[in-house]
C-alpha cells in the first residue's frame, strides 16, 4: 500500500512539473510567435515573478488533480475537474491577455487593446487570485480524500 501511495505521489509530482514546464513553453511559443523572441524575453524578465508563480500554480493544480485521479481510480467528480480546469484557464487567460494587444489591431479592436495594456498588472493579479483559488480547492479535495481514506484503515 505504501509503495503504491509513493508511486502515486511521485507520478503526480512529475505530472505537475510537466504541467509547469508545458505552460512556460506555451507562454514563450505564443508570445514569440506574436511579437518575436526579443519581446518575449523582455516581457519575461519584466514580469518573471507573475509568470513563474502562475506556471507553478498551474503545475500544483495538475499534480493535485493527477493524485486524486490516480488515488480514487478515476472516481473524481466532474465538478472537481471542471472547477480546476476553469480556474487554470482563467489564470492562463489573465496571464496572457495583455499579449492580445499585439494582434488585436489586425482585428480592429483598438478599445480592448487599450484596456488590456492599461490593466496588464491587474490582469496578472486576477490570474494569481484565480490560480490560488484553484490550488486551495484542489488541496481541500486531496486532504479530504486522504482523511476519508485514513479513517477507513
Average per-residue pLDDT, rounded, comes to 76
- Residues in helices, as a percent range: over 70%
Shape: elongated
Topology order in helix (H) and strand (E) letters: HHHHHH
Question: Which structural category fits the helices and strands?
Answer: mainly alpha
Number of domains: 1
Radius of gyration, Cα only, in angstroms?
18 Å
Task: Summarize the biggest pleated sheet.
Answer: none
- Count the beta strands: 0
Low-confidence stretches: none
Strand content: under 5%
- Distance between the terminal alpha carbons, to the nearest Å? 11 Å
Summed up, the helix count is 6
Q: Describe it for me?
A:
The protein is built from six helices and no strands. It is an all-alpha fold and 153 residues long. The protein has one domain. The mean pLDDT is 76.
Could you outline the blueprint of secondary structure elements for this entry?
Blueprint: H1 2-35, H2 37-71, H3 78-96, H4 104-107, H5 110-118, H6 120-152
Helix pairs in contact: 1-2, 2-3, 2-6, 3-6
Transmembrane segments: 12-35, 47-68, 121-140
Keywords: Membrane, Transmembrane, Transmembrane helix
Summarize, please.
With 153 residues, this protein is mainly α. It contains six helices and no strands.
Keywords:
153 residues, membrane, transmembrane, transmembrane helix
Amino acid at each position: 500500500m505504501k509503495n503504491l501511495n509513493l508511486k502515486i505521489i511521485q507520478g503526480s509530482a512529475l505530472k505537475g512539473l510537466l504541467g509547469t514546464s508545458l505552460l512556460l513553453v506555451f507562454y514563450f511559443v505564443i508570445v514569440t510567435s506574436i511579437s518575436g523572441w526579443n519581446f518575449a524575453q523582455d516581457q519575461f524578465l519584466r514580469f518573471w515573478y507573475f509568470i513563474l508563480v502562475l506556471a507553478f500554480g498551474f503545475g500544483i493544480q495538475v499534480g493535485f488533480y493527477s493524485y486524486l485521479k490516480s488515488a480514487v481510480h478515476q472516481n473524481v467528480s466532474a465538478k472537481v475537474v471542471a472547477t480546476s480546469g476553469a480556474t487554470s484557464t482563467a489564470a492562463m487567460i489573465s496571464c496572457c491577455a495583455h499579449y492580445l494587444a499585439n494582434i488585436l489591431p489586425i482585428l480592429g479592436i483598438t478599445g480592448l487593446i487599450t484596456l488590456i495594456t492599461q490593466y496588464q498588472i491587474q490582469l496578472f493579479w486576477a490570474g494569481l487570485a484565480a490560480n490560488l483559488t484553484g490550488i486551495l480547492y484542489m488541496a481541500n479535495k486531496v486532504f479530504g480524500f486522504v482523511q476519508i481514506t485514513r479513517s477507513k484503515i
